[in-house]
Amino acid sequence: MLSVLVCIFFVFICFLLQSTVFPHLAFGGIIPNLMIVVTASYGFMRGRKSGLLVGFFSGLIMDIFSSGVLGFYALIYMYIGYLNGVFKKMFFPEDIKLPIALIIGSDFLYNIIIYVLIFLLKGRFQFSYYFLNIIIPEMVYTIIVTCILYPLLLLLENLLERREKEGASKIV
Amino acid sequence: MSPVLKRPKEKFTLPSKYLLFLLTCVCIAIMILSFKTPALNTPLNSIAGVLLVPFQNGISEVGGWISDKSDQLMEIKDVLEENQRLKAEVDRLTIENTKFQQERYELNQLRQLLKLDEEYSEYEKIGAQIIARDSSNWFSSFTINKGSNDGIQINCNVMAGSGLVGRVTDVGPNYAKVTSIIEDNNNTSGLLLSTGDHLIVTGDLTTMPKGMIAFNKLVDNDNKAAVGDKIVTSNISNHYLPGILIGYISSIETDSNNLTKSGTLTTAVDFEHLEDVLVIMELKQTIQ
């Protein structure tokens, strides 16, 4: 129960930061993608189901406050969360390489999907422009933010896990 | 006593594969639904209005205060220099102003003769503050802190200074979402003021960092359109009130079909540093 509350808290805080604070901290008009960090992290830390649920709800919040069709981001984020959940078997809390790689990959995938579905289908063929001016800067900025956000997520996750184990051993 | 032990009931869990499939269906359903009707938006918007908007309001207020203070400290030196320069400019402008006042007097008289109303300044407007921006880098819609409680409706036009920003596309009780004209998937019907020709203004992400967006489908058979000409909203647009300034032509070229022209225009509004906007309460009259 507590872990669900922590999850909701993180999604809320990240959305608020991303929509209000980071536009002031934008580098060249580019803001980092915190929602993808949270979605991917919960995906590989807790597994497929948590990943897809966190993705679904963070996408839904973004949908409500964006101008597009409702459910569009929810679908993309849900699949990204699910795909990250597949890597739970390979995930160890001590290893930082896999999380970073997965978050970069997720952000890249997310941007490519948006480019293909919205921009390419409308006849915007200058992929290299979008790649160099939006996708790459966003990935770099997201990684910088990940270095701060991810240890926080991991720390809370470990604390919760320990608590759960203690609780379980008491019952036995 | 019966030796039967009560086994703890197993918690029902749905395998993630099925959950994924189920939620995919849900997503597709709401996508289709929200595309067809805005019925789903109202409950979600009021929930968001209660849960998130107060926070966004607070954060943007604090953030605005902090950035104000830091700007003040940094700019004091510039301001002193600028003051000198501006004083000189004031003198120059005062002279110019008197000239313009004379011309304006003449213009007003001519307008009265033509029975032209000065429509622009007659619209009822309310000010609003931007509290949140679109959370992706691909789009540039934003949220303002006034909503249906203040009388804002969907399709209300939004201005900043004297230029067009966009229109309200969704409204909650205490906030409204504004889609800007620079958004890549947005088209606006415009009018070239110098010749009266219609054109289409299209948002373009690739030229936006330079403060420019694209326009196309300009029929200009007399070759009169030139760089620097004003583009305003057209009277045939079904969302925008006529005669609101969009921007100025910054480059123009003939299309390969030799019939129409396209190019880029510099927007009248500085979208990068937009903080406060004006919402026009009047809606464009359309035939349903």
The sequence of SSEs of chain A as H and E is: HHHHHH
Structural class of chain A: mainly alpha
Shape of chain A: globular
* Span of the ends, CA to CA of chain A: 20 Å
Contiguous low-pLDDT stretches of chain A (5 residues minimum) are none
Please state the CA-atom Rg of chain A, rounded to the nearest Å. 17 Å
Write the layout of secondary structure elements.
The complex is a heterodimer of chains A (172) and B (288).
Chain A lengths: L1 H20 L12 H13 L1 H18 L6 H14 L11 H23 L7 H45 L1
Helix pairs in contact in A: 1-2, 1-3, 1-6, 2-3, 2-4, 2-5, 2-6, 3-4, 4-5, 5-6
Chain B lengths: L15 H21 L4 H11 L1 H62 L10 E9 L8 E3 L12 E4 L2 E9 L4 E5 L6 E6 L5 E5 L9 E8 L10 E4 L11 E10 L5 E8 L8 E5 L8
Antiparallel strand pairs in B: 1-2, 1-12, 2-5, 3-4, 3-12, 4-5, 6-7, 6-9, 7-8, 8-11, 9-10, 10-11
Brief overview:
The complex is a heterodimer of chains A (172) and B (288). Chain A is an all-alpha fold. Chain A contains six helices and no strands.
Structure description:
By secondary structure, chain A is an all-alpha fold. Chain A has one domain (30-161). Chain A is built from 6 helices and no strands. Chain B is an alpha+beta fold. Chain B has a domain at 124-288: Thrombin, subunit H (Beta Barrel).
Structure characteristics:
heterodimer; A: 172 residues; mainly alpha; globular; B: 288 residues; alpha+beta; Thrombin, subunit H; six-stranded antiparallel β-barrel; 12 strands; 33% helix
